[in-house]
Write a structure and sequence with these properties.
With about 280 residues, this protein is an all-alpha fold. The chain has a single domain, classed as MetI-like (MetI-like fold). The protein has a two-stranded antiparallel ribbon with strand order 1-2. A hairpin with an 8-residue loop joins strand 1 and strand 2. Helix 3 packs parallel to helix 7 and helix 4 packs antiparallel against helix 7. The mean pLDDT is about 85.
């Protein structure tokens, strides 16, 4: 019964990866049957391509900022909702989780309106508060575009990671907190000695999601900042431009292969570095 599913997955999932590795060794426009084998030449170009490293730097910045901010906010809201036992907790979960199920294009268009320099909500609010000196063309200025692109990534993923934390906290036996209270532990001590250690495995899984999400942000950047702003260039847009705009499909595929290897390597490294003895209860 699993053979048809496996065949379908192999054809539509695994085969494209294999063909991607194959095409990366050729100089090819992507539109003709003429393919010139160049070996590792495309990867040598990557090593000396400053624009490629600029895109890689932007991806790294998005990963670090979105990971740190999303992690802190998701954990904070999860602890507040579960430990405070709000009667409206279900409403809060739905509200925070809703952006995660929205299409990426819809999120990008929504935030483009928010950051619009003329009619955007953000500049309008700053003007209303007499903070005109803080207004910017958020998606058009080099100093602000990367932060503007990162904001919807945080907003869109916050609810998902908050729900993960909530499920983990609810799985911790209440007797542990009761025993800690009897011993005189305050809320902060309960968090550092009980909640945080017992959520470690969930955090390790979240890191993998953060890595893949920050690298696979092509659609968001494409819609919000376009393809002409070097300050918002990421690996996905750089790959797209070379493959479909410059008709250099071999080089674009080499960028795609690098993205695949980078994502896999980072995930394995982070899982290795964060591995520790499992806390039992």
């Amino acid at each position: 019964m699993t053979i048809p599913v496996f065949i379908g997955y192999a054809y539509f999932g695994i085969l494209p990866y294999i063909k991607g590795f194959y095409y990366s060794f050729f100089k090819w426009t992507g539109y003709t049957q003429v393919m010139n084998f160049v070996g590792l030449e495309n990867f040598k170009r990557l090593a000396g391509d400053t624009n490629f490293f600029n895109a890689l730097y932007n991806n790294a910045a998005i990963f670090l900022i979105s990971t740190l901010v999303t992690f802190v906010l998701a954990l904070f809201f999860a602890v507040v909702i579960t430990r405070s036992r709000f009667t409206e907790s279900l409403l809060y979960r739905i509200t925070y989780f809703f952006p995660y199920v929205m299409p990426t294009a819809a999120i990008a268009i929504l935030w483009r309106f928010i950051f619009n320099p003329s009619v955007g909500i953000l500049n309008g609010l700053l003007t209303l508060l007499k903070l005109d000196f803080w207004t910017h063309a958020w998606l058009g200025e080099k100093a602000t575009v990367l932060g503007a692109v990162t904001a919807p990534i945080i907003w869109g993923s916050l609810g998902f990671f908050m729900v993960l934390f909530i499920s983990g906290i609810q799985g911790i036996p209440a007797t542990l907190y009761e025993a800690a209270q009897i011993d005189g532990a305050g809320e902060f001590q309960q968090f550092t000695r009980i909640t945080f250690p017992l959520l470690w495995e969930i955090m390790r899984t979240m890191i993998v999601f953060f890595i893949s999400g920050s690298i696979a942000c092509f659609a968001l950047v494409r819609v919000m900042a376009g393809l002409t702003n070097p300050a918002a260039e990421v690996l996905g847009t750089y790959m797209y431009k070379h493959a479909f705009q410059y008709t250099d499909f071999g080089y674009g595929t080499a960028v795609g292969v690098f993205i695949f290897i980078l994502t896999l390597a980072l995930a394995l490294i982070m899982r290795r570095l964060t591995r520790k003895e499992l806390v039992e209860y």
